[in-house]
């Protein structure tokens, strides 16, 4: 069974304090690993897709990396507006659904 | 211009009632999905339709029935609502095998 585990559950950072969020996964043939951001009361907002080990993608202060067992979302010099829940999901090959982790709730304090 | 929209945004109803949630996407995608996010914020797939055909049907009570009148719309009808159905329901869409884009969610509260 495909599984995703995210850690930590919650993370509190000072503005400017860089850190990383972890997403460990097991999947029967990875088609893609996805990162989403979810603000309170809103739907998940797409950030990145990673397809193969060694791949990296960046967007503003966020950088996502992928190995064969896990993905990291690195946040460099975060700002209060980066506060949100970050969701990781994997998709196996074929007509398979996204399998989500429980998310990491990030709070960035000014 | 909203890409994936859902109505209503909030739904408060009594146990035993029947209710529907509507979803529309203007992205030209072939595949649409319904997800349920429970009180612990865990997001889980319920159904997936591709070009109006059901392709994924996870273990969901048969009180839940999706309907896709065309590939831009996917509605969710729920019969005989129970307390445990209280959750946020998200619609999403994608090109086949591509990134999924989510709607704003429908918050259902069953009293």
Summarize the structure.
The complex is a heterodimer of chains A (110) and B (111). Chain A is mostly beta strands and 110 residues long. Chain A has strands spanning 3-7, 10-14, 19-26, 30-38, 45-50, 56-59, 62-66, 70-75, 84-92, 99-100, 104-109.
Structural description of this entry:
The complex is a heterodimer of chains A (110) and B (111). Chain A is mainly β. Chain A has no helices and eleven strands. Chain A has strands spanning 3-7, 10-14, 19-26, 30-38, 45-50, 56-59, 62-66, 70-75, 84-92, 99-100, 104-109. In chain A, strands 2, 4, 5, 9, 10 and 11 form a six-stranded mixed β-sheet that branches. The mean pLDDT of chain A is 95. Chain B contains no helices and eleven strands. By secondary structure, chain B is mostly beta strands. In chain B, the strands form two sheets. In chain B, strands 2, 4, 5, 6, 9, 10 and 11 form a seven-stranded mixed β-sheet that branches. In chain B, strand 5 (43-50) and strand 6 (53-57) form a beta hairpin. Chain B is 0% helix and 57% strand. At the A-B interface, strand 4, strand 5, strand 9 and strand 10 of A face strand 5 and strand 10 of B.
């Amino acid at each position: 069974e495909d599984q995703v585990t995210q850690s930590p559950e919650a993370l509190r950072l000072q503005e400017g304090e860089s850190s990383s969020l972890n997403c460990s996964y097991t999947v029967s043939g990875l088609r893609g690993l996805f990162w989403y951001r979810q603000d309170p009361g809103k739907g998940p907002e797409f950030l990145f897709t990673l397809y193969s080990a060694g791949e990296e993608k960046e967007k503003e202060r966020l950088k996502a990396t992928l190995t064969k067992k896990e993905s990291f979302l690195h946040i460099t010099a975060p700002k209060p507006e980066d506060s949100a829940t970050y969701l990781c999901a994997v998709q196996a090959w074929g007509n398979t659904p996204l399998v989500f982790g429980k998310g990491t709730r990030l709070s960035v304090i000014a | 211009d909203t890409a994936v929209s859902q109505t209503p945004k909030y739904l408060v109803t009594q146990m035993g009632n029947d209710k529907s949630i509507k979803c529309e996407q203007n992205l030209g995608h072939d595949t649409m999905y319904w997800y349920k996010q429970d009180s612990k914020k865990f997001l889980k797939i319920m159904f997936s339709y591709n070009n109006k055909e059901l392709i994924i049907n996870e273990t969901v009570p048969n009180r839940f029935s999706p309907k896709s009148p065309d590939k831009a719309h996917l509605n969710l009808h729920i019969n005989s609502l129970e307390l445990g159905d209280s959750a946020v329901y998200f619609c999403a869409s994608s090109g086949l095998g591509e990134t999924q884009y989510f709607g704003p969610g429908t918050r259902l509260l069953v009293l």
